[in-house]
Amino acid sequence: MAASASSKLPNIPQADLDSFAEHLQKSKRILAVLGAGLSASSGLPTFRGAGGLWRQHDATQLATPEAFEADPGLVWQFYSYRRHMALNVNPNPAHFALAELARKRDGFLTISQNVDGLSQRANHPRDKLHLLHGSLYDVRCTSFYCRHVETNNFTDPIVPALAIPTEDDAVATSAFQAREREHQQHGASTSINGGPRELDISDIDVALPDLPVDALPHCPKCHNGLLRPGVVWFGEMLPGATLDTINDWIEAGPIDLCMVIGTSSKVYPAAGYAMEARVKGARVAVINIDKGDEPGGGLMQGDWFFQGDAAVVVPEILKSVIGEIGQEGRMVGQSNI
Length: 337
Ligand code: OAD
Known about the structure:
By secondary structure, the chain is an alpha/beta fold. The protein is built from 10 helices and 13 strands.
């Protein structure tokens, strides 16, 4: 195997990095399909990885209209937790690198399955970022007669009843407390910023209150309907206008390159876009930590599989167009084209 072009990517052959860079530089229309692995190194769990369980629930089973109907309090606690977690982490160099590529290349379209708001916070140009599964920070009224939608609602907690409990709230079970005593004996810290420490409500040993529907977020417009998270749940239609824009873009001409980043490619239509791009002539590059996770249709000759952490791989492979990206997204070098 040839030496790596980059000390940051010791396991990727030089020839693959070179052929990708050469193709990227001449690519005019580029598609990226993003998944939860993009945000993994920011500290957010993926759906199907080790962090895919929330308490005893499979995260994908809480993301359904049926779960919300059966227990809106539980589903809001799950989403309030995810809003809080995502607000407390930062975009990583891959989010910044993709945002920079969007500024550098007019013909670059990004389709994201992520609802965490990190691409937006990395200043990814909004007209080039299409959110297939909605956003944690959009909320909408469930009343059939209202349907009010509020975008970019970053209030955390969205209502007081959904505040993350702290150790002062004494909702931890005895099993949790015993484990904490053990941690403390081993020198683990018990507070952040000197205040009471927030409890991790994804842990089944932290008790959750049963919230009455009255305590959940209600519509500021009709003052009656219950609000729900503005994400697409399993069994629901994807946003029609977003799908139309993506399809129009795909149909508009040949596509040179499709990057599939940090997704298990299990959920359609996202999993099928690489194949659609291929039909329009694209070569496909997969960036994933797990060699087994290829997009629908698999890989073909001329494609690339860059195995590794997206936060490291993406800025490296885009470097020939975007220059060096620092930790906070600052440009530390100049583009060479
Ligand atoms: P998954 O959890 O299914 O897959 C995450 C992918 O990221 C896996 O292929 C991992 O191998 C990969 N991965 C993990 N850490 C990585 C890292 N540091 N760098 C690169 N890759 C890494 O998440 P998605 O594919 O995004 O839908 O899931 C798709 C949809 O299923 C989600 O949008 C959500 C979920 O149910 C809805 O909620 C509608």
